[in-house]
Design brief:
alpha+beta, Beta-Lactamase, 5-stranded antiparallel sheet, about 20% strand
Length: about 400
């Protein structure tokens, strides 16, 4: 094969088209998958945020209903008004066992201002008397109406309600507080979406020693040093490196943030988070969201392989068709013209050029045949011209 021949140049052009076609297909598929994975991550984060808000509102409504029942119970009201801790515990302990099974893990009665303190802690009756000076405590004292919101304690984060408690004469006797740990939310969310979640808490709001002590009590690894700015309080996956990243829990106000796509073994994931605020509107943590997109990735890979095979096959078939047409319509006829011209030069004046069609090559064949005839006539008359001289 001659490197300067038209056939070689056409073959090179077709090979370049093949490479560009396959490369373009792969690039387009990669771009499409990147956009789809980004969209899946954004949908996971926004969907998780909406679901979290729904669960938050549901649990707040449930705790409000429980507190309404307590307010109408004369025995509970009288025991609290008399500051009879033993009697109050006796009356409320059976109910607390049922509420705990439904997720209400915190239940407390507080003495009124001034000197507001814990009178009875149903989830830890032996501990009482500690002074209260949290944001929600100040708000309920200021407004004397129910306050709701998330609040982060030393090593726990819960959605809470805090409301005034009155005796049968309408006199303020203190406050009742109910709370549900947000760690329970993530399991409800996982059961509904199939995604994995992690509750991240900012270290600014978590006491280091209390975190170490609680880790020892609950026999969990002390993960304080995993990240400089936050700790993982709870998660739905047992894989240590699934719910983690290096960075700050910063995102646009009221919105989530999509992070990078990553792989573990044969699995592919997208992840992001949305901020969680306390009752004072401080960003005290974030809900980390991880979605497994392995099935989407596998489908994309299968589609990519299929499109590559189809593209290569189509381009090869097209190349074969182009070469066949060029050979039939151009190269074979040009070869015939060259063979006839060579014979004419060699003295064979009888071989004529066959005109195959009226296309461009056919017009060239016709012109060359006319030129051959003129050339042959001219050579035949050369002796006569010489005699006249």
């Amino acid at each position: 094969m001659k490197w300067n021949s038209i056939r070689t140049k056409v073959l090179a052009a077709l090979a370049a088209c093949l490479v560009l076609g396959v490369g373009g297909t792969l690039t387009l598929l990669h771009y499409s998958f990147a956009r789809n994975s980004q969209a899946l991550a954004a949908e996971s984060v926004s969907g998780a945020q909406r679901l979290f808000q729904i669960l938050e509102a549901r649990e707040t409504s449930k705790m409000t209903a429980v507190s309404e029942t307590l307010l109408t119970n004369p025995q509970v009201r009288d025991a609290f008004a008399a500051k009879d801790r033993s009697r109050l515990l006796e009356l409320t302990a059976p109910l607390y066992a049922k509420l705990k099974a439904e997720g209400i893990t915190n239940w407390m009665f507080h003495t009124p201002e001034p000197g507001m303190s814990v009178f009875l802690r149903l989830h830890n009756p032996q501990k009482f008397g500690d002074q209260l000076n949290r944001f929600m405590d100040k708000e309920v004292v200021r407004t004397h109406s129910m306050v709701t919101g998330n609040e982060l304690a030393k090593a726990g984060f819960a959605v809470r309600i805090l409301r005034p408690f009155y005796d049968s004469h309408g006199t303020l006797t203190g406050y009742v507080e109910l709370g549900e740990e947000l760690g329970r939310f993530i399991r409800d969310m996982k059961s509904q979406t199939g995604d994995d979640y992690g509750l991240l808490l900012s270290k600014k709001f978590v006491d280091r020693q209390f975190w170490a002590d609680s880790s020892a009590v609950w026999k969990r690894r002390d993960n304080w040093n995993d990240n400089p700015s936050f700790v993982v309080a709870d998660k739905t996956s047992s894989r240590e490196n699934l719910i983690q990243f290096q960075g700050e829990l910063t995102a646009p106000a009221g919105q989530g943030k999509v992070l990078e796509r990553f792989s573990q073994g044969d699995s592919v994931f997208v992840r992001g988070f949305f901020p969680i605020y306390d009752a004072a509107n401080n960003t005290v943590g974030a809900m980390f969201v991880v979605r497994d997109i392995s099935s989407v990735y596998l489908a994309m890979r299968n589609t990519q392989n299929l499109l590559v095979i189809v593209s290569v096959a189509a381009l090869l078939i097209g190349a074969v068709l182009v070469l066949t047409l060029l050979n039939r319509l151009v190269f074979r006829r040009l070869k015939h013209i060259i063979r006839v011209a060579t014979r004419v030069v060699g003295g064979d004046y009888e071989t004529a050029i066959r005109v195959g069609s009226n296309d461009e090559i056919g017009q060239f064949e016709q012109l060359f045949e006319q030129f051959r005839c003129v050339f042959v006539d001219l050579l035949a008359n050369v002796p006569e011209f010489q005699e006249k001289k």
